[in-house]
Amino acid sequence: MARIGATPEGGVTRLGFSATDRDAQRYLADEARRSGLVVNVDPAGNVLMRRAHGPSTGRSVLFGSHLDTVQDGGRLDGAYGVVGALEVLERLDEAGVETALTPVAVAFSNEEGALFQQPFWGSLSLTGRIDDLPRDPRDLNGLSLREPLRLAGGDLDALETAAWPQGSIAAYLELHIEQGPVLERTGFPIGVVDSIVGRTVIDVDITGQAGHAGTTPMPGRRDALVAAGHIVQATERLAAERQLCRVATVGRLSLQPGSTNVIPGAVSLTAELRDGSRSRLVTAEREFLDEVALIGKQTGCEVTANPSLRIDPECADPRIRDIVATAASRLGLTHTTTPSGAGHDAQVMASAAPFGMIFVPSQNGLSHVPQEYTAPEDLVNGADVLLNSVLALTRG
Ligand code: HGY
Ligand code: MN
Ligand code: MN
Ligand code: MN
């Protein structure tokens, strides 16, 4: 899988709904079919894999992750959980295991939101949260999602039919690299996730006055990038000094016209705030909006700030946490309880089903970079824990 979208630095660029992402989706589906599994792509572009013969009950246990990556990302974020899920389903099938609930492996579409800026596209659709999605999604270049989604086997006009009926999902499980340093530092091969951080993204547009960089005196300038600089610092302070949220990042910024001898007239940026508490996120957002308005006044720029994403923090289900911990113990693997600072489809699935997550160590805690690495032995351990957890959950 890591060959699809491989970068010279050893990482992967596989942006959601790009041609490369489609290649990965096709490769996955071909592998699953070769193993005798049944593959469907839903209207949101999610790939769903099932056994050809299964229980007649309508309730399912879903497990999987996402195949898309960030720009210049790693090989494992997302893909590990999807490949692991396919392997688990194949093992169940090869062994002829009979289950009470239906095991379904899933590759969610566009989890990262790197090209089409809506993250969790696939899981929000599958859980019926269409109101949280843009009506006419566009990528960073303004191109519509309609055609890329169709090429991926989806259908923008039928998006609401991607939703599963209430109560049809008995549980959701996700296997993922930790993406942080805790497991490696503490020496535990398995992390049992207890909670996932919440996230608010605010789109900020700043309009100043472009002009000649040589002739326009400093007093009275309305430099949109200077205003943006204040906003970047205010974002950092929000978490680092004021501790209103756990972390805060300006990850995207573009300016117009972008010439050495022209005063920047317009800037767009995103501020991303994360915390484990929903109410703290609400407060941090309000404080941020107040501060941004003040910076607009002080710099003479027109500033608009609109939240484009609000994803709640969520807690894993105690019963599923127990099942994962027991599976690890039986395999002779020590485990620790850990929160997730990264977002996951699991927290979106929380609105439809109880969820659990299994973490494996990330070397040097690195992720969203080409250096992302987990030792093969650790990857196998995680997949074994997933297999045994799915066995326990599908028993009913
Ligand atoms: O950004 C995140 O936390 C996740 O990797 N999508
Ligand atoms: Mn990621
Ligand atoms: Mn991920
Ligand atoms: Mn000139």
Automatic annotation (TrEMBL):
<feature type="binding site">
    <location>
        <position position="66"/>
    </location>
    <ligand>
        <name>Zn(2+) 1</name>
    </ligand>
</feature>
<dbReference type="InterPro" id="IPR001261">
    <property type="entry name" value="ArgE/DapE_CS"/>
</dbReference>
<comment type="similarity">
    <text>Belongs to the peptidase M20 family.</text>
</comment>
<dbReference type="Pfam" id="PF01546">
    <property type="entry name" value="Peptidase_M20"/>
</dbReference>
<dbReference type="InterPro" id="IPR002933">
    <property type="entry name" value="Peptidase_M20"/>
</dbReference>
<feature type="binding site">
    <location>
        <position position="77"/>
    </location>
    <ligand>
        <name>Zn(2+) 1</name>
    </ligand>
</feature>
<dbReference type="GO" id="GO:0016813">
    <property type="term" value="F:hydrolase activity, acting on carbon-nitrogen (but not peptide) bonds, in linear amidines"/>
</dbReference>
<feature type="binding site">
    <location>
        <position position="112"/>
    </location>
    <ligand>
        <name>Zn(2+) 2</name>
    </ligand>
</feature>
<keyword id="KW-0479">Metal-binding</keyword>
<dbReference type="InterPro" id="IPR010158">
    <property type="entry name" value="Amidase_Cbmase"/>
</dbReference>
<feature type="binding site">
    <location>
        <position position="176"/>
    </location>
    <ligand>
        <name>Zn(2+) 1</name>
    </ligand>
</feature>
<keyword id="KW-0862">Zinc</keyword>
<feature type="binding site">
    <location>
        <position position="77"/>
    </location>
    <ligand>
        <name>Zn(2+) 2</name>
    </ligand>
</feature>
<dbReference type="InterPro" id="IPR036264">
    <property type="entry name" value="Bact_exopeptidase_dim_dom"/>
</dbReference>
<dbReference type="GO" id="GO:0046872">
    <property type="term" value="F:metal ion binding"/>
</dbReference>
<keyword id="KW-0378">Hydrolase</keyword>
<feature type="binding site">
    <location>
        <position position="368"/>
    </location>
    <ligand>
        <name>Zn(2+) 2</name>
    </ligand>
</feature>
<protein>
    <submittedName>
        <fullName>Zn-dependent hydrolase</fullName>
    </submittedName>
</protein>
